[in-house]
Amino acid sequence: MTDFSNEQDLSVNTDLASTAFDVVTDLVTGTSIPAPIKRNAFKAFGRLCSAAIEIPVAYLEGVAAEKRAETQGRIKIIGRTTEQIAQQMEVDPEYARVAVRKFGQKVIREQVNLDMISEVAASTLKETANQGEQQQTNNEPEESISEDWLNTFEKEASQKSTEEMQLLFGRILAGEIRRPTSFSLKTVKLLANLDPVAAALFKKFCSACITLRIPGTNQIIDARVPSLGGNAGSNSLSKYGFSFDQLNILAEYGLIITDYNSWRDYKICILNEQKQVMLPFMYQQKYWALLSSPERAVGQEFRISGVALSRSGQELLQIIDIEPMTEYTEALRVFLDDSKLQMVEIQGSLRSR
Fold first, then answer.
1. 13: helix, strand or coil
2. Residue 256 has what DSSP assignment?
């Protein structure tokens, strides 16, 4: 994290803000983003980014220089008013200078954080559009990103100076711009309060999750780490990094539900006689169906017990980078084999987004 204590640091971070501005303006002036999403982008970035986008697109480039000059002007104003503040408060001018300087540093630091997060969001939106990911279209009901949501997001995001947290907050902002109400206020606050140990544990937990999603949407029906025939509350998953104590950490943050042995019927993931599946499940960023062996009765229920994600956990699952879980994956295959089932990767049109 930069100190913001001298002109060189201020110049560096003005450059960072300029880079963020370039990324944001490139997004909103492009043609590949659907109009409803672009309108939400204008609203969000105009609120959060120092490159306030509240004017016609044709003038954006001219405003860039104006905004950068405005930032430098504010810094000079802070310096000129220091002596006046000292006189009014009847304190040592040096003390006033230090206080005003620290306040100025705080304001600048928070704005740079928001600019960096806006850059991540803009880059994410542009990347998904370039990849042809299914987006909201003009034929769908338009939803506007909530002012209350932006209020909370701005407050929490402005405090995030690490690259890891800026990445996650940027992805949340992109998701909310794309589909408003995708991330609740509770989830935004939860992420803001997540410490590094819990964040690392949650990333590992998400990497072991199997997930049922409604095709064509980000809506999750179920997301859980199977306990593989054991009881997670009795440490059956401890060898994979999910001991009872570790699960309690995730539960305390509200990322998982407290019943560590809940279950759901995954019969809908089993291929029928025509080799068709009602709904595949997702694991390790791939879609899978279950192939039943001849010994297994047709239409038989298939309960998967384990530790399920909470609603906030499900929302955050969508922005987490999944890491390999080789040992757990092998154990999952063995568990399915014991149930007379085999994982088969689904290709092409069956994949849902």
1. helix
2. B
The per-residue pLDDT for range 129-175, each reduced to its tens digit, is 766 554 444 444 468 999 999 999 999 999 999 999 999 999 999 99
Q: Are 187 and 233 within one domain?
A: no
User: Using an 8 Å Cβ cutoff, are 259 and 247 in contact?
Assistant: no
Q: Which of 112-116, 136-140, 287-291, 294-298 has the lowest mean pLDDT?
A: 136-140
The tokens for 77 are: 């104003």
Point out the least confidently predicted range of 136-145, 175-184, 194-203, 212-221.
Answer: 136-145
> Into how many domains does the chain fold?
2
Does the residue 1 lie in any domain? no
Map tokens 């109009």 to a residue.
35
Range of the domain at 319: 196-350
Q: Which two tokens stand for residue 188?
A: 């935004």
Calculate Rg over the CA atoms of the chain: 25
pTM of the model: 0.78
DSSP 3-state assignment of 38? helix
What whole-number distance in Å separates Cα of residue 336 and Cα of residue 283?
14
**20 lies in the same domain as 155:** yes
Nearest Cα residue to 65 out of 81, 48, 51, 47:
51
In tens, the pLDDT along 23-75 reads 666 665 565 677 788 888 888 988 888 654 443 333 344 444 555 555 555 55
Residue 77: count of CB within 10 angstroms of its CB: 11
Q: Tell me the three state secondary structure of residue 301.
A: coil
Distance CA(291)–CA(341), nearest Å, equals 5
CB 60 within 8 A of CB 201: no
The helix/strand/coil state of 32 is coil
In degrees rounded to 5, what are phi and psi of residue 299? 80, 5
